[in-house]
Write a structure and sequence with these properties.
alpha+beta
């Protein structure tokens, strides 16, 4: 006689927890943000840059460059410039991988904000964000809650725009370094071997260390924040689609939005009325499933009518492409 093997669920990991916080709308309708959403007229996105996404894969892309296994270990600082081209970081960035902006503070701040949300949602022990920090030194972050330190990080990492000099200014290096060291200490203190209370029907990790054993974190009088698990409103597209660019007409920047029901190779090109190719935005690039937005800068083009064409192909197991969707739409440049 023998007993049949019974398939078991694999042990969940940190990525599962990250996925759950996104799936159940733990960060609100705006998604996961490091920095602050500055799309309003007062806080113009012409001057500020921030990380904002509704996809957990974008957060993973920000953490590590998978092809080279590069992680953030560069100097702690604000969102200043892209390492690849030296241009200032402005507007919403869906991912900021280490090969584009190597910043150890960014990685630790992401981990901290994720930890706070996971705790509020009950995936890890509740009350993490309400713990009070005090390391017994003259640290200016002493007597702030973990959530307050995260909020301070959101503010300071964006820097400030000086109207008098018409330039972006950031805090002193030692301020960023202290913030990084403080957040890293908080992120590391409850790190350990993962175990779960449950994960078949709901995800809940066990704690790995008693708070009484952590000298620099104490209970506060604050009631722990709780986030009710709600299914997120965002749904994966059911079919390929290309939307009308906006604004249209435009000068000189517009946004092109399209939908992919699954991971696909995408080519997106611009043509003039003679059918001549004038710009290549995407050239057979792999993109995740979902709604994608691409900004197009037509500064080098003259006024007139143009067409944008998309070709999207499904990716087979052998990484070959099946061209399954292509269409064209019209745009107007006015200068």
């Amino acid at each position: 006689t023998f007993v049949h093997n019974i398939p078991k669920l694999p042990m969940p990991n940190r990525v599962n927890a990250l996925y759950e916080t996104i799936l159940y709308n733990g960060y609100g309708t705006d998604g996961f943000i490091v920095g602050k959403n500055r799309k309003t007229p007062v806080d113009s996105s012409k001057y500020y840059g921030w990380l904002q996404t509704v996809k957990y894969k974008d957060i993973l892309k920000t953490f590590i460059k998978t092809k080279t296994m590069q992680m953030h270990n560069g100097q702690a600082r604000g969102f200043d410039v892209f390492a690849s081209n030296g241009k200032p970081i402005i507007k919403q960035q869906k991912s900021i991988p280490p090969d584009k902006h190597d910043n150890e503070l960014l990685a630790e701040l992401i981990a901290l904000k994720f930890g706070i949300t996971a705790s509020s949602m009950g995936f890890t022990p509740v009350g993490f964000g309400e713990l009070m920090y005090n390391d017994g030194t003259t640290n200016p972050l002493n007597n702030k809650t973990v959530a307050e330190i995260a909020g301070y990080g959101d503010s300071i990492i964006m820097g400030w725009y000086d109207q008098l000099t018409e330039s972006k200014v950031f805090a002193m290096d030692d301020i960023y370094e202290n913030l990084y060291q403080t957040i890293r200490r908080i992120d590391s203190v409850f790190e350990g071997v993962l175990d779960t209370v449950s994960f078949g029907d709901s995800l809940e990790f066990k704690g790995v260390r008693q708070l009484a054993d952590v000298p620099f974190l104490q209970y506060s009088n604050l009631i722990p924040a709780r986030i009710i698990l709600l299914e997120r409103g965002w749904q994966q597209p059911m079919e390929f689609a290309l939307h009308q660019n906006y604004p249209n007409p435009f000068n000189p920047i517009t946004t092109i939005e399209f939908e992919l029901p699954e991971e696909s190779f995408v080519t997106l090109k611009i043509y003039n009325t003679l059918g001549q190719e004038v710009a290549t935005i995407l050239d057979h690039e792999v993109m995740d499933a979902g709604t994608q937005e691409i900004e197009f800068d037509a500064s080098h083009l003259s006024s007139g009518v143009y067409f944008y064409r998309i070709i999207a192909g499904r990716i087979n197991e052998d990484e070959s492409t099946i061209s399954s969707f292509q269409t064209v739409k019209k745009m107007i440049v006015i200068k």
